[in-house]
């Protein structure tokens, strides 16, 4: 049976030998560099990079949709949104690692992270996470306005205080987790909005990208959860894949959301028909059908290689959509 008891306070593993004999590699400048590398690792760079890119895509698409942002202003806001979003997202990820350190130590895929690996002290990671979130929100507030800052703060709060604790309580956590993953485009669109306050969040492009990101995340993360279902069980996490050894429940959900993803990928074209026309629509439809085929194969043959194909397919699908979206919008804005 899976041990779902609440883990006790986390203490980094320190061997008797480590206490007695300092490692020269972790003394002086090498120690500082190693600490910075470990702190950077707590930000989950891959996730932070994706979140930052989607925020910048939202900014570019929002700016091109309204067509009244100067090149200089766009460049400045892009830098502000990228820096602020990366800081806030990275800080939230660090706090997530801090809260889940004990559970991470139980899982093979996360046992070597900085906290369970004993490379950082818990207090260091907690302070870093809070400081990074506050710095990111401040950068956005001062450089882009209150609306982007509030969206970034909402992302961090939901991720750390709602999604993270829910992971040990309910399989619905993945659905809740799509919220902080889907909101970042609104950081970008609200930064270039002509209106102020909460009205800056009303633009259709931001919500179209929110819908796209919401649906895209579900097949992506369900595939990961099924591939590492034994690890998640060891960590005490309640995932859709928990108890789904045959993969029928998970593969059905993956396929169902892959079907919904096709209209979701077309939502940006509906939000900005003057910018996204036949080229984007064709690319979105064909790539969506291709991804659906991969998911249907997983449904028919519920093996780890098929689940991995869904994961890899999702990673290829989203950048293709965003590249096609931004490229066509930029070209049409110049014509």
CATH topology of the largest domain: Tetracycline Repressor, domain 2
- Please tell me what the overall shape is: globular
| Rg result | 21 Å
Q: Total strand count, please? A: 0
Largest sheet: none
Can you give the mean pLDDT? 90
CATH superfamily of the largest domain: UbiA prenyltransferase
What would you call the structural class?
Answer: mainly alpha
**Proportion in helices:** over 70%
SSE series: HHHHHHHHHHHHHH
Low-pLDDT sequence parts: 1-27
Beta-strand residue fraction: under 5%
Describe this structure in words.
This protein is an all-alpha fold and 335 residues long. It has two domains: 37-199, Orthogonal Bundle (Tetracycline Repressor, domain 2); 203-335, Four Helix Bundle (Hemerythrin (Met), subunit A), CATH 1.20.120. 73% of the residues lie in helices and 0% in strands. It is built from 14 helices and no strands. The protein has helices spanning 16-20, 29-42, 45-66, 71-99, 101-106, 122-143, 146-166, 173-182, 184-191, 204-227, 229-235, 248-271, 278-300, 304-334. Helix 12 packs antiparallel against helix 13. The longest helix is centred in the last third of the chain and has 31 residues, at 304-334. The model is unreliable at 1-27 (pLDDT under 50).
Can you lay out the helices and strands and say which pair or pack?
Blueprint lengths: L15 H5 L8 H14 L2 H22 L4 H29 L1 H6 L15 H22 L2 H21 L6 H10 L1 H8 L12 H24 L1 H7 L12 H24 L6 H23 L3 H31 L1
